User: What shape does this take?
Amino acid sequence: MEPIKIGLLGLGTVGGGTVNVLTRNAQEIARRAGRGIQISHAAAKYFNPNLIHGLDQIIHISKDAWAVVNDPEVKIIVELIGGDTIARDLILKAIENGKQIVTANKALIAKHGNAIFKAAQNKGVTVAFEAAVAGGIPIIKALREGLTANHIHWIAGIINGTANFILTEMRTKGRNFEEVLAEAQACGYAEADPTFDVMGIDAAHKLTILASIAFGIPLQFDKVYTEGINHIDPIDVAYAQELGYRIKLVGITKHVDTGIELRVHPALIPEPCLLANVDGVMNAVLVQGDAVGSTLYYGAGAGSEPTASAVVADIVDVVRTLTTDPEHRVPHLAFQPKEMSNLPILSIEQVETAYYLRLNVEDKVGVMAGIASILATEGISIEAIQQKEQPDGAQWVPLIMLTHEVTELCMNKAIQRIETLEHVKGSVVRIRLEQLDS
Assistant: This one.
């Protein structure tokens, strides 16, 4: 049987890794796919040939991505150029041309996936995107196929390695955010413009996809509550550890009675919890299903060959299904298109969670009573409280509180009132606290 020919858009980190893996493991991949796979056409503006082994096996390399998409011999387009503008146009054109699609582009799927999947369904082609979430971890396949018997209750994930590296360094070495970010950029973990990583946007793209597959809802990136780690202070990292918690940037989505929670933000996680022990640039996703209970998926969330592993697995899956009736393939977002739900996405003020609070208060009798009164009025119960020791004569002392679960709206009201008190200095530091069934 003739090898199936693929067109590759992008020969950067992931594109180069994909060429390396396809070339190095060609025989094993063919055994699994049932036929050979050959990159017949590739397009890239710039690439480093010294980092890619197997370029000589590619029939044609050019700078024209449209030529690849319109090549009649190419059956599968592998999009690895990133972004959500030209990549969207190229993929829609490829679908119009009847080509199968493999992509690692989380922003594209999160923002334009609904339209792309509809076009693919109408044309009878597949769009595979395992590498779009958590790099080499097969979380899409696990949710879409392995856990299909379950009602998914919630998903919580550390799905951005850059942010996780920064918070790990802050905890283990007591360093500040700016210093660790500079090192992450020097090591290649963070981009020159790290906004997507440290502000939670990258994680929000990924969480959008996970929520859609888990709960059968349309992709709704614009409704994700997103908060980054740029405001995290080393003192809060240290206080959290003293209390038995670790601060992580987490993506959380839950199916609750009133709708779907969809949020990315820093949170205190109890040390015994599996997610609290995921350090450095690694990723992990914790899934709670009604039948299976808790399952954890851990591994490299980025990198050349870990991500290429997922890309090539998608290529193999597409090759296997080329002879399958399109109506009987695994749905793109796990649920049949006509069965997608209109469950509402909750605003962050509707979300219930516990909190870590840090206040600078005047060391006087009655200050705590005033704060406790405000919290009680807003229905907020205190689980633990600590007043940190300061040198004799210090006027202001840190007060640390952990609360029980309450809506964000109630907490907002309480904080607004507390910050107006005469004996409270500056803003209240608030970090959400998630037990995650630890």
